[in-house]
Amino acid sequence: MVKTFHDIISKTKNQDIKIVAVAAAEDTHVLEAISDAKKQGICNAILVGDEEKIGKIAEDINFDLKDIEIINEKNPSKASMKAVALVSEGKADMVMKGLVGTADFLRAVLNKEIGLRTGSLMSHVAVFETPKIDRLLFLTDCAFNMYPDLNEKVQIINNAVKVAIAVGIEIPKVAPICAVEVVNPKMQATVDAAMLSKMNERGQIKNCIIDGPLAIDNALSVEAAETKGINSEVAGYADILLMPSIEAGNVMYKTLAFTTDSVSGGILVGTSAPVILTSRADSHRTKMNSIALAALVATNK
User: Which residues form the Phosphate acetyl/butaryl transferase domain (predicted)?
Assistant: First the structure.
């Protein structure tokens, strides 16, 4: 059972090495992550960006670039297009955002000619390893979809399930998170949660177990679920936390990141190849974890 990022990284070593194309690679944390990932046999890279700046940063962090292909492109938007094109052309397995604005980067990902659109909904999956929980937690969507409706939630679940299965969780348990654990017609999230559970029961959403609505305590804690008399395969054992909105997801993500000793990584899925969409403020460890996560998903796409 894969329970930590150490397990994830170990699993990547049992598969073919993937290639990540990095857009605007002149970023210290990104290059530190690429260096670590390369040393650990997770991936190789093609760096697209300002070659002079990349070289200077690499020298500062003792990153040997002799086996790394560099495509010199000083304009971040054009670097994004070139990095995405490498994936579209089969020269790389995944794409990573470097020192470029998210909007410019995503324009390249969504480009009609060379982008990574599939016709499916794109969504972000954040994976957390946190000390008090004995398993990995998959949070979705904390960064991309703002107020998903029922149909969009189905697609967000399907995307997250694919990531969880790629990591090694055979039948992920999904908890649609709400403020309460009962259906209230005035609270749309609870109605959606009940419908998602029924759709799963009838085989309309496959390869997972869904039960909700569940409040966050009941999703994570067996004791809390038992106290409230909730009898469920998911309550207390949830792997995937389906957040009701981007506000709830963003708060949950940042609370775990800033108030606990958590380790995390995250990727954008629903694309033809994994997209590593980390914040410029993320540590190089978070970026490396995201690369490892993307490498597993790229193998199981």
Answer: 5-75, 78-295
pLDDT digits 0-9 by tens, 106-151: 999 999 999 999 989 999 999 999 999 999 999 999 988 999 999 9
Residue 294, token pair as written in the block: 């993307």
The per-residue pLDDT for 67 is 87
Residue boundaries of the structural domains of the chain = 5-118+271-299, 123-259
Mark the ranges of the chain whose per-residue pLDDT is less than 70.
none
CATH homologous superfamily for the domain 123-259: Isopropylmalate Dehydrogenase (3.40.718.10)
Q: Domain 5-118+271-299: which CATH class?
A: alpha beta
CA nearest to 30, candidates 45, 16, 15 = 45
3-class secondary structure for the chain?
Answer: CCCCHHHHHHHHCCCCCEEEEEECCCCHHHHHHHHHHHHCCCEEEEEEECHHHHHHHHHHCCCCCCCCEEEECCCHHHHHHHHHHHHHCCCCCEEEECCCCHHHHHHHHCCCCCCCCCCCCCEEEEEEECCCCCCCEEEECCCCCCCCCHHHHHHHHHHHHHHHHHHCCCCCEEEEECCCCCCCCCCHHHHHHHHHHHHHHCCCCCCCEECCCECHHHHHCHHHHHHCCCCCCCCCCCCEEECCCHHHHHHHHHHHHHHCCCEEEEEEECCCCCEECCCCCCCHHHHHHHHHHHHHHHHCC
